[in-house]
Amino acid sequence: MRRYGKNPDEDDIRTRPNPKGNRPRTSIRPKHEDAAEGTVLTVDRGRLTVLVGDREVTAMKARELGRKSAVVGDRVAVVGDLSGAKDTLARIVRVEERSSVLRRTADDTDPYERVVVANADQLAIVTALADPEPRPRMIDRCLVAAYDAGLDPLLVLTKSDLAPAKPLLETYGTLDLAYVVTSQEDFLTGGVEQIRERLAGRVTAFVGHSGVGKTTLVNALVKRQRSTGVVNAVTGRGRHTTTSALALPLPDDAGWVIDTPGVRSFGLAHIDPSRVIHAFPDLEPGTEGCPRACSHDEPDCALDAWVAAGHAEPARLDSLRRLLATRERREGD
Description:
The chain is α/β, with parallel strands linked by helices. It has 8 helices and 13 strands. The longest helix is centred in the middle third of the chain and has 14 residues.
């Protein structure tokens, strides 16, 4: 039996209502060649703040991106309402190719990589000389992550008014590591010019344990106030006050800093030891005689003969092996 009459366009035909009120979906998506370019400043529960020109625009990831996500520092293509007005929402339709990616895992057994920031070219490893006590293994892990990502590491030592910097700096003397030493007075008086010089013209990600003064330092550099906390007198650890990464411009367009949440672990499960050697140009040629998949810390490693022949200093090989061994050690060891 025919359900409707001969004319299927009759006015009395009942149609199924669309409770969501949206348009029919289609698998055909626009290419968005004319999308505006922007940079992701921060990500908060699926909403991204994107700098488009001189405006901060709230956006969300478009469906066509699939599983691909955008992180702080990403250069993206954006369509939709780009006015930056309240309650407006744009869409990110494309994530451009990244020049660098800083990653970490929750621990050394976690197979899931977390992208910390994209397109940075320098990693500032912030460590307090006291309150809380410095953790060299954490520094080592950050150095390995920086070398793996192709970032230039910068060691920033804070609270030098509470403890001397020399003992810790001697630990990293053979790495030819760039560093700056600051005190609490520098933050109060605005005396952070020595750090600002190291950041000029660069995109620098700041990492460090909670309570080391990372966000206080960023506030002094960019002249903006993010919440800061204090160190727990019992545990010696800081409290997480920065909950999401945030990219901030330095005054006078002198560069960018990316403040990241304080971390208590920096897993290296994703690190390929063969990439870390690239940060040791004096040792890298000596690996040509190494056995396949050499860990560079085994009896057949060719680096021992390379150093014995005088091509590099023994202390440099010791530093490389100490860094590679961080995957087997916890930060507090």
